[in-house]
Specification:
Strand 7, helix 10 and strand 8 form a beta-alpha-beta unit. Helix 1 runs antiparallel to helix 2, helix 2 runs antiparallel to helix 6 and helix 6 runs antiparallel to helix 7. This protein has two domains: 172 residues, Beta-Lactamase; 147 residues, Heat Shock Protein 90. It is built from twelve helices and eleven strands. By secondary structure, it is an alpha+beta fold. The strands form two sheets. It has a six-stranded antiparallel beta sheet. It has a five-stranded mixed beta sheet with strand order 7-8-9-11-10.
């Protein structure tokens, strides 16, 4: 009879590819040998410090925890190999199951009185425990312990093999994901470098075509005035306006190359300055609003992360102004204990599907986000259009990489 039941347990294991389903398939067969109201497997982690629980039948809070420390387990002495088994007539009052810090609530909640706990062994080591319980008092004997151990010895190698396979699969997936992230960053960094090179060429052309041309014209005007020997007030006013225009153009180019407002006053003010500058010449006009409820936590980030975050926001604003024809753009900076969030919203006609691997501005936004470990997503804000760009940075990892906070300075006079 016992051999037949053990064979049935072995057959029940066949075909299952995860430990939980394999165990649940054997629970019915084990019940024909040892009647139970509750049965579970506690399986140790690789380092032996934690264990997960697989339950059959009704579930307790043991299985709702993914893993919990062995030192808090009521069956820790079996898991540590300090005792060959546990047998009790009433676990509700047995002091072996109750101690300071014990996770023993399910014993009381489920009224698990009669209990057998035997170890699962594989490759000469304890890998977990088989736990069999009934609500009644005094249901199990030493003979039941021996049968329970035979059941445990039968299922342990199979459960161990499934766990090893599952961990190997998770490791392979993690390695594949890491490889994909590295490849994404490599390609993204290459695209970003190309984009930066194009931007440098654009700035060089702006300086050559606009600023140098303006300065050459001013030089010719000054030369003409010198040759005339006298300058009228209107001519000097024109020269002053020309020089002011050159200075303004140079300031825009320098700000694009090195965001000085960001360094001097922080992210919020830098974003506001760029937002106002971007919509200054918009026709029809674009209303803007910026709100910062983050208590300035962005300025505790490292300079690299802060600059990358600013560049992403800058590109999002530029895209809205150039392509979405909005009537309003809003920027919100918020934070929780764990996350810094920047949201750029507009009521334009939307951006459509977003390809994170595309070249150009949106591709650069995704690359910059990946390089600093931020999350970036694009959302539609309504049926009639509108786009919301959400950037999220985990604060704890970010703060671990920070330099000193941004020192607020007085903006020097620029001539």
């Amino acid at each position: 009879m016992l051999i037949d039941r053990l064979l049935a347990i072995s057959q029940a294991l066949a075909g299952h590819i995860d430990p939980g389903s394999a165990f649940r398939a054997t629970a019915i067969e084990i019940g024909t040998l040892i009647p139970h109201d509750h049965i579970d497997l506690a399986v140790l982690s690789q380092d032996g410090r934690k264990h997960a629980c697989y339950e059959a039948g009704f579930h307790t809070s043991w299985s709702r925890l993914a893993q919990h420390p062995v030192e808090g387990s009521p069956i820790r002495h079996v898991l540590w190999g300090q005792t060959p088994y546990l047998l009790t007539d009433n676990a509700l009052i047995d002091p072996r199951f109750h101690f300071a810090g014990a996770f023993d609530g399910p014993i009381f909640a489920a009224k698990l009185r009669s209990r057998i706990i035997v170890p699962l062994r594989a490759r000469g080591s304890v890998i977990g425990a088989l736990n069999i319980s009934r609500h009644k008092v005094g249901c199990y004997t030493q003979a039941d312990v021996a049968v329970a151990q035979q059941c445990a010895d039968l299922i342990a190698p199979y459960i161990f093999a499934l766990i090893q396979t599952e961990e190997a699969r998770r490791a392979m997936l993690a390695e594949s994901e890491a490889h994909n992230r590295v490849e994404l960053l490599r390609v993204g960094a290459s695209q970003l470098t190309e984009g930066m090179e194009r931007e440098r060429r654009r700035m060089a052309m702006d300086l050559h075509d606009q600023t140098l041309g303006d300065l050459a014209r001013i030089a010719r005007q000054i030369s003409a005035l010198r040759s005339q020997g006298v300058a009228r007030e209107a001519q000097l006013a024109d020269l002053e306006q020309e020089v002011a225009g050159c200075l303004a153009e140079l300031r825009h180019i320098v700000d694009d190359m090195r965001p000085s407002v960001l360094e001097l006053f922080g992210l919020r003010d830098a974003v506001e300055a760029h937002l106002n500058r971007s919509v200054a010449r918009a026709k029809p006009p674009i209303a803007v609003h910026i709100a910062d409820t983050s208590a300035g936590c962005a300025d505790s980030l490292s300079e690299t992360m802060r600059t990358a975050l600013y560049r992403i926001v800058q590109e999002a604003i530029n895209n809205a102004v150039r392509h979405a024809a909005p009537s309003r753009i809003e920027v919100q900076l918020t934070s929780t204990e764990k996350v810094l969030r920047v949201i750029i919203s507009d009521d334009g006609h939307g951006c459509g599907p977003v390809d994170a691997t595309a070249h150009g501005g949106i591709g650069h936004m995704h690359t910059r986000a990946a390089l600093i470990g931020a999350r970036l997503r694009f959302e539609a804000t309504g049926r009639k259009g509108g786009t919301r760009v959400v950037i999220e940075v985990d604060r704890a990892p970010a703060l671990a990489r920070t330099a000193a906070p941004v020192e607020k300075k007085t903006l020097p006079e620029v001539v």
